[in-house]
Design brief:
Blueprint (H helix, E strand, L loop, with lengths): L2 H6 L11 H16 L2 H48 L4 H30 L7 H17 L2 H8 L3 E7 L4 E6 L5 E5 L9
Antiparallel strand pairs: 1-2, 2-3
Helix pairs in contact: 2-3, 2-5, 3-4, 3-5, 5-6
Length: 192
């Protein structure tokens, strides 16, 4: 069902049919090329694991920077306490101490979040994981259960858009190639 009908009713429909069997076959073929072979699954797993490692390195650097900031704030607090002991104005010190303690609490909270994220870090993705997901997609299509097909497709396809003016169906996948654009007219032909 097109979005126009869903949100504005049947009067919004321009009545341009799309061959469901052809679209499903085409999408499955493109998903198989991108994910469903051992070589493709290896490429996707390598790319995902590389991105996970890059994210881990960024978090590691952030942790080092935050730890340095925390030590600097703690040093400022210590210096402020010493200054008060040496006669610095207590009222002025209270205001500054409140600001420093707030900064320290925020930095500690951010460090805890990073540590918790590290504890829940996902395991590396294997090509077997991807091939299993693809096999489940094929089973869903064999079962002809639309809810199950939709659920499994969402692992691979971000969005489908149909432009009735140009009879173009654009499919956005979650991996390379990111977009496959298909022109459809009189029986649907692939012009990717």
């Amino acid at each position: 069902m097109c979005g126009s009908v869903r949100y504005r009713g049947n009067q919004a429909c321009i009545y341009k049919p799309i061959d469901q069997a052809w679209v499903e076959g085409f999408v499955l073929e493109k998903i198989k090329e991108t994910f469903g072979t051992p070589e493709a699954a290896q490429r996707v797993a390598d790319k995902v694991n590389e991105n996970l490692q890059d994210e881990f390195e960024v978090r590691k650097k952030a942790r080092v920077k935050l730890t340095r900031s925390l030590h600097a704030v703690e040093a400022k607090i210590t210096n402020l306490v010493r200054a008060v002991a040496n006669g610095f104005d207590v009222e002025t010190a209270k205001k500054e101490l409140a600001v420093l303690q707030s900064e320290k609490a925020q930095t500690e909270a951010t460090l805890r979040e990073l540590d918790n994220d590290e504890l829940t870090r996902p395991r590396p993705l294997t090509p077997g994981d991807i091939l299993e997901l693809y096999a489940n997609l094929e089973k869903a299509f064999q079962s002809q259960d639309n809810a199950r097909k939709r659920k499994m497709l969402r692992y691979f396809v971000r969005r489908l858009e149909f432009d009735p003016g140009s009879d173009t169906l654009t499919i956005y996948f979650f991996a390379e190639p990111a977009v496959a654009s298909v022109c459809q007219s009189y029986g649907a032909r692939d012009e990717t």
